Amino acid sequence: MADTSRIGLIGLGTMGAALAANIAEKGFDIAVFNRTTQKTRDFAKAAGDLAPRITPCETLEELVAALAPPRAIILMVPAGDPVDDQIAALRPLLDEDDLIIDCGNANFHDTNRRMAAGDGPFLGVGVSGGEAGARHGPSIMAGGAPAHWDRVADIMEAIAAKHEGAPCAALLGPEGAGHFVKMVHNGIEYADMQMIAEIYGLLRDGMRLDTGAVADLFEAWDRGPLDSYLIEITAKVARATDPATDKPLLEVIVDAAGQKGTGRWTAIESQHLLTPIPAIEAAVVARNVSGRRAERAAGEALFGPAPQPVEIDHATLEGALIAGKVLAYAQGFVMIAATCEAHGWDVDLPTVARIWREGCIIRSAMLDDMAQALGDAPGENLMRTPHFADLLKRHHGALRQVVAQAALHGHPVPALASGLAYFDAMRTARGTANMIQGQRDFFGLHGFEHVNGKTGQHGPWAG
Ligand SMILES: NC(=O)C1=CN([C@@H]2O[C@H](COP(=O)(O)OP(=O)(O)OC[C@H]3O[C@@H](n4cnc5c(N)ncnc54)[C@H](OP(=O)(O)O)[C@@H]3O)[C@@H](O)[C@H]2O)C=CC1
Ligand SMILES: O=C(CO)[C@H](O)[C@H](O)COP(=O)(O)O
Asked: Ligand 2 test: best mutation among 108, 189, 287, most atoms within 8 Å of CB?
């Protein structure tokens, strides 16, 4: 096998196959390998015009031999042990300057560990956009050493989505910075999806809209300030029919959401950092609750169904989603900033907003303004930047209406409610934690700070 391919890829699943075809289409010779050989053969057979650029390999040795040194090999396999196992199998076959690029949804702590191991050049690269994005232009969030990124930047930029001609791909920082940003991207994705699902619930159970009317509404919203990929596909999902039953597809999909870990990791990490991201956390919790189907049914049998009819005008629902979305993104950006500080990384938030503008699942027209706002006010919470503060001033009333009406009529809207609670808490100069400090001191003599500035103070119960 001639060592002529520019790059290798392991893992021809949903994402790997699409990414490999994208790479070949952009003119780079690629060698591919998959654990199950038949998949490699099927991929090569289906390659059509791209076949001359693709070298299918049936062993790792063949893959390594097919690559021009210094080699670069993408891993597109499930996060966790499969990545470690694949690295362990590959490294002995590679030269010491050959580069392994993990393009899966790795936990960034694992990426930090793999880089620190010093077994050879390594990049941790988050890829977003699902199968279609991987095939035609994803958003690419990389972490690692600039010298390693430079070796494959031309490929990554060629295959990435473009926004106004600029590639949605960037080296965001050292170590696991790319996988960290992808993780927070997914956390925002969870919140965005959950808020949309909550509004869908109000339309379905509160206002008795059929799926066609739901689709019409989301299509209309996609032409306004909410213009985004998730709103667009929400309309398409609502419009779809189940071929087996001819019913609306949404009626035959079980109401229990799956999850692969990135949302949960975001929530866990935020707790370690003491950085509040309640809308994202609420969305993770909502997925966990969704899985408790038998318990929910038992609750309904005991207490009666919660959701009651409610009338909320469409403009108010739209305004609530606008405010909720801004607050979810604001929480995600604050979390990225906090982590950068903790790890000594210097991830540029406007760059993150720009490379999310196209290709990724949370792409949204609002990200243009977010990139601008974060650039104009470095270090500021997005919710206090002039443009988004103005949006929140205009729409927090709608969010409040929706959360209040939902609560009064028994509709669970945890992400919207958490977004609102965050907004209210972050605009309340005098909070209520003085009571908590008093209680802590009462039962544990933990001490409190006096308003006169003296710390380590105690109440009259001490001593
Ligand atoms: N699907 C999506 O929308 C997105 C997924 N990702 C991430 O991309 C990665 C791949 O996801 P996706 O393509 O959806 O997954 P798929 O399940 O479609 O494919 C997984 C691939 O990994 C291979 N594989 C699985 N386990 C092992 C193992 N232990 N050792 C070697 N190879 C293995 C499979 O090979 P085999 O054929 O032998 O089973 C298959 O080729 C994941 O980290 C995922 O989180 C990132 C962005 C979006
Ligand atoms: O990374 C992605 C999108 O950006 C993947 O589709 C991921 O699987 C989504 O997360 P989950 O499966 O937990 O919903």
From this structure: 189
On the question of pLDDT at 17 being above 70, the answer is yes
pLDDT digits (tens, 9 = 90+) for 67-118: 999 999 999 999 999 999 999 999 999 999 999 999 999 999 999 999 999 8
Question: Is position 73 within any domain?
Answer: yes
Q: Is the pLDDT of residue 278 over 80?
A: yes
The pLDDT, as a whole number, for residue 3 is: 84
Which atom, in ligand 2's list, is nearest to the CA of 261? 13
Exposed e or buried b for every residue in 229-265, given b needs 16+ CB within 10 A? bbbbbbbebbbeeeeeeeebbbeeeeeebeeebbbbb
Residue finishing a domain among 156, 175, 194: 175
Which residues in 31-68 are b (16+ Cβ under 10 Å) and which e?
bbbbeeeebbeebbeebeebeebbbbbeebeebbbbbe
ipTM of the complex: 0.98
Cα–Cα distance for residue pair 339/319, rounded to 1 Å: 31
Residue corresponding to tokens 């006169």: 452
How many independent structural domains does the chain possess?
A: 2
- 443 found inside a domain: no
Would you say residue 436 lies in a domain? Answer: no
Counting ligands in written order, the one closest to the CA of 189 is 2
Q: Are 171 and 191 in a shared domain?
A: no
Residue 374 Cα to ligand 2 middle (Å): 26
Q: Which ligand places an atom closest to the C-alpha of 261?
A: 2
In this prediction the pTM is 0.97
Task: Give the residue-averaged pLDDT of 176-189.
Answer: 98
Among candidate residues 39, 175, 182, 281, the one labeled active-site is 182
Per-residue pLDDT reduced to its tens digit, 299-310: 999 999 999 999
Active site residue 189: yes
The string of pLDDT tens digits covering residues 36-49 is 999 999 999 999 99
Catalogue the E-assigned strands of 14-121: 30-33, 54-57, 72-75, 99-102
Identify which of 15, 63, 139 to mutate to test ligand 1's pocket (most ligand atoms within 8 A of the CB). 15
Q: pLDDT band at residue 2, thresholds of 50, 70 and 90?
A: confident
* Residue among 364, 332, 340 at smallest CA distance from 263: 332
Identify whether residues 297 and 328 lie together within a single domain.
Answer: yes
| CATH number for the domain that contains residue 105 | 3.40.50.720
Rounded to whole angstroms, the Cα distance separating 229 from 394 reads 23
Per the structure, the complete domain to which residue 66 belongs is given by 7-175
130 lines ligand 1 (CB under 6 A): yes
pLDDT tens-digit profile of 140-180?
A: 999 999 999 999 999 999 999 999 999 999 999 999 999 99
